[in-house]
Write a structure and sequence with these properties.
heterodimer, A: 488 residues, mainly alpha, two-stranded antiparallel sheet, 18 helices, 6% strand, B: 1054 residues, mainly beta, 22-stranded antiparallel barrel, 5-stranded mixed beta sheet, 53 strands, globular
Chain lengths: 488, 1054
Amino acid sequence: MKNKIKYIIGLCLCSMLTISCNKDYLTPIPQTSITDATAFDTPERVLNQVRSMYQGLKNGNFYGGRYIVYGDIRTEDFINETTNGVTGFDVWNLNPLGTSQNSVKNLWSQAYYTINLCNLFIDGMAAKGSSVVGATLSNNYLGEARLIRALSYYSLLQLYARPFADGSGNKPGLPLRLTGIKGSGSSDLARSTVAEVYTQILIDLGFAETNLPLNYTTAELNTTRAHRNTSIALKTRVYLTMQNYPAVINEANKIVAQNLPPFSATSGVAHALQPNILTIFTNYITTESIFSLPMTTAAGDNPGTQNQLGYYFVRNGSSLGSAEYSLNVSGILGNPSWTATDVRKTGLVFTNGTTGKKFVSKYQLASPYLDFPPVIRYAEVLLNLAEALARTNVAVDAKGLALVNAVRKRSDPATTIVAVTQQQLIDAILLERRIEFLGEGMRNNDIMRLLQTIPAKGSVASKLPSDQGYIWPISSDEMSLNKLMTDN
Amino acid sequence: MILIFTAVFVFILSAAAQNRTITGKVTDERGTPVEGVSVLSPDGKQGTQTDSEGQYSISLPASVKTLRFSNVNFEVISKSLGSQLTVNVSLKAKDSRLEEVVVVGYGTQKRREATGSVSSVKGAVTADRPVQSFEQALAGRATGVQVTIPNGVLNTPPVFRIRGTNSISLSSYPLIVVDGIPSPTGDFSSTSAAGNALASINPNDIESIDIAKDASAAAIYGSRAANGVVFITTKKGKAGKTKINYSGSIGFTTAYGVPEVLNAQQYTDYKNRAATNNQNLNTTNPAGSGYTKFALTNGPDGNPINTNWADYVYRQGFSQDHNINLSGANETTSYYFSGGYSKQEGIVMSNDFIRKNILMNIDSRFNKKITIGGKVSYSNEQNLANVSSGSLSGEAFGTAGLGRTQFVTAPNVSPYKNDGTYNISTAGNFIGAMNNSIAQVGFYNPVVGLDLNRQNSETNHIQSTIYGQYKPFSWLSFKSTYGIDYLFVDNETFATPVHGDGFAAIGSATSTLGKYKRWTWNNILQFDYSIKQKHNISALAGQEQDRRTSVGFGINRTQVSDPVYTVIQAGWGINNSSGSVYGENYLKSVFGRLKYDFNKKYFIEGNVRQDEYSALPFQKETFWGVSAGWDINNEKLFGRLKNVFSTFKVRGSYGKVGNTGGIGDYATYSTYGSGLYGGNPTLLFNQAGNNNLKWETSKKLDIGLNLGVLNDRITIEAVYYKNDQSNLILNVPQAPSAGLPTSVPANVGTMYNKGIELALNIVPVQNKNFTWTMNFNYTNNKNEVTALAPGLNEVLVASSGLETVNRTAPGYSVGSIWVVRQAGVDPATGSRILINQAGNRVLYRFAPIAGAGQFNWTNPDGTRYLNAAGQPGTINQTADAVMYNSTPKFYGGLSNSFKYKNFDLDVLLTYQGGNYVYYGSWAGLHDQRFWNNHIDVLQAWQNPGDVSSVPRPVYGDNVSNGSALPMDYSLFKGDFIKVKDLSIGYNIPSSHLSKLRISSARFYVRGSNLFIFSDYPGPDPEVSSNGNSAAGQGVDRNTIANGRTLQMGVNIGF
């Protein structure tokens, strides 16, 4: 019996030995990511997070691709060629459903993801990051966060909310989220009104203007990171959308001081029109491109499959895009005011030799489509100012006329826009916007802010501002998960 | 020294002097000689074995008065020796019922003593089947076990459920334990060729499959047992001379149920009619004059092209399978050594599966106390495809998917132009439109990809164990087992720049390597003791460590520098990393089992396991199961009923087990990952974690009754079970406006499965020439989700990220189908009639004339449809859809085996029912874009008064058919009965074989998936476009159907 007990004890001891294990195995540390507890610990991590907010904005489902595409294909200037639900057929048809993954849902979630990145950054800086990088840099970075947040909210409003002009913003806007969310429990939030969201956008842009640096050390950074003039330029867009024309003039004058061409910014980054518009679609970092989104061949650093602007708009020879949307001959392409010798027609419209169909060819790089999607150009600031001036001056505003001609004559020197009445000037400016920004996602926003009917095209009927589908439905995911949400 | 030699010599002499030689023949009760019977003296010093004629010869000292005859299959007999030198013995076969064992965790039990719920399936039912992995052959074989082959792509992991779906977001796949070591499960290929990890186990090497279904049987696997545990035991050598077996087969597999689509003329006419009906398309044409967007094209032979795309997508697959094994055992060592080669061609062009595998099992009794053994298993599998079939999870809407290409592409164009080059449109990266005056009449030209692309995955899988057992006393043993499971997966793809997926990127190649390594080490102390032969106690204590690491890396290269290059090592322009994987986890456990029975009448058993898991750090949890059984038949009180019942046993169990399958290794952390912004590094919030995460728990109740009559010629097993799942981990989606990068995992859901299982085994006929055995099994299961998360009322799953038809919500079964209702076609207008929330009819019309008072959505009287708020409305899923269960309510199988003389016939029927299948392809088959249509559109509505199920075709309409708005037009009952397996075999009489030195030979022919009886219009209601996803089941979208296989083969024993 003694022996038996010895055996048992021996065997138990063996078991005890083998059971002693490596404690590290039980508490593995992620090797391919940083945990949230340490994300603001070094200046490098803070800076990398700043860039992550841009990365969110740049995503192909948002400003890096589809937001711009939708701004164009909702309008009468484009014809759908592929009937593909994945590439915006429903958007073009003006009948996307709240369940539409590829348009309504993805853009909504990506924009709010970007907003949350900004909110988390703002919170994290207050908690720790500001002390890590110092006050000056901290304020610069916070300015960038506020600007990206403002731009994201603005973009969402254009698709998911009634235009400001409809009741001066008293219609349902967006859930206005201003603090970072890391976990569950924050789903429910009601929509603020359109006006309330705009108010926040302007507060953010105001903060950005005050705190952003005047400029950066390289031309590339001046285009791909926000600086003071970026926030001013965006404010002209926001105020124009709100039809607050005096404010547009006030903001624009900060960077368009002159009354006569050449117009240029005199403080901060020296924005100016490039002599040739073709330049800005090959050299993405000129002073005209106030804010564009950089792309590289690295995985995840470009728009990704079926999001790329070039993919949608053009097929050039055998290997560029998918030619999803051609130019509607009954749209701006057929407008006689757009002359055949205009560089924007000769240089930025491509004709398919076989079908004769025409395409926007502003985005000319083949896969992986590294053209920088433009967010805002100096030309827009000029036309924003021109329109605000024209609308606030019952006579034909001279500077307004000069501004629109500056844009026109760059590409079409033979033509001079003349206007005898205020309305003629306004119409000329609106027309110029359609020509100048074709393929840059501006047309839908222009229709919306003026509460105009979306004209018919191809097999698609027109949409009155009162029609269902004039604005998008809300993402069905939002509807089911946010109990306080209401649909459009 | 001399002295020693002398002593030995004298000893030998003296021994020889006293010896006598006994000879004899050992037979069974029928007089057939028995080979391999051990003939031993009582002290074990003298021993021999019988030969193939049952003869033995043994030299014995005079002191030996008895001989002991033993063989695993027979009762042991001791024979007293008189003076005669010839001793013939007739052995009595053992009662196999008494001896039958089942594998339980870390050991075995006699079936009659088991109190847990364990189904056992013999390895023979998986051998020689046209399958890639054993579990594909388990359908219909055991109660509670549901196996669905989701598509016809080779080596796709089947949907494998035990007693219903027991998780919503985590894995519902059972834990598979192969020879004591847990095996990886699931698809490890990252290409369009599926790579089921379990295919590494050659089905021909499997001895038995034991399926633990209740908490008692599974609890010893604690936190991994919620989905049940499947024990695979590979073959070992059996006592006797070395045996060599060869089995081989060839087979032909063909597709069935391929949708019938319009031919070129029908397509052209029908689509032109649809174009004419589109007023908006037609504004430039006078009404009624017809519209000819579609036109036939003459082929090289001068006749109009009429392409049946199925001919390019499907094929007759040829397969061959060869296995050879060598096995045997002597008194101390048993060995089994096998090699297999299988090359199978799928029904989809270019989809092949090639396996080469080797298995070696050795067990050796070193001495009375020490046993050492182990196994080495190596398998190489090549999973080959050229193009996505569109059938694996996530592929349903892939542009290249062959399942859809076959029925979408216009039949009036050819894969080749008349000059023999590929018919492609570089203007659109589509198949060329030929004479159709419309840009697009298909997606990719499938032939280009089938010719030029590759989607290959190669697996190298090593599974090995070594163990040592020390048994100091008959009642105590200590066993230590160390095992490894190394799975290496090479994925290799190439997409040509000519056309298709690689076109935009100017060619694309990806190579990735995934290394999934596991080691397991367990130590077991086992105690078995019997007091006065009445109190039988068995106890087990053990501990185990299980560590897994996964590392993957690779590269994607695009922009090939020369069109001749197709391999990753060639010249390419852009390089990106691909297939990055990094993970590790570790499970540390202690466990125990205590078993007691009194006089083999009353049984109780308890199992317990405590787990610590690295993915849920700083937590321990204890899982347990208890069970009890009462063998009433052994009760004296049972008295005369004993004459009626040969078995009468009740048992029950209850316990708590867990589920971790699918929890991310770092799921508890909120993390920031690395990215780029214009080439500069970023740090991006990429995972919302939950540091309170814990195991899913499953409380399982099981009550069973086993009856046997007529000496168990008829046995019945009836079981009631209920699994209550709680703490279900859901990746709780937050409102998208919360802006989280991922859903947040949380233990929130509850769900139950309950049901009954009935198994009936009957041997209606059993005589010398003819035997008929029958097994019928039936499982009735009810699944219901009882709670999700506070504020979360549904979990939606989108097939391939596009089409949402699966909704999981409290009060319904998991993964229910969620579609709007329709009521056919309005005879007056030919419009689709939909039913809104309130039950009212709403008509849909595509492309109404703008501004002419025509609307997409109207009331039956033509006025505009207004929603509840009085606004112009639409029918949409959120408001108007209703739910249908996709979980089968019952399923099972019926197998009959007949043996007549040397012939045998086996038939397995499987059945399933009570569920709905969403046949999404049906929507696609009626889509009015350029897509080709099902032939039933020929009966489409044309004139007022027509009654048809197919609406008036309007070119571009993707709503009326259900493409844009999932509707019950594409919903069908999933009930079926299948002739799953039918084989006829012939055993060549041994008298013919002995001259050839062959001990047995059997020839057979077999058919698999021979017939389906079902009202389902698609190829096969056994289908899953979303793979094993529990919340995404019951969808058939663009999926390749299963194949029907005819096979012939031979088994030869030497």
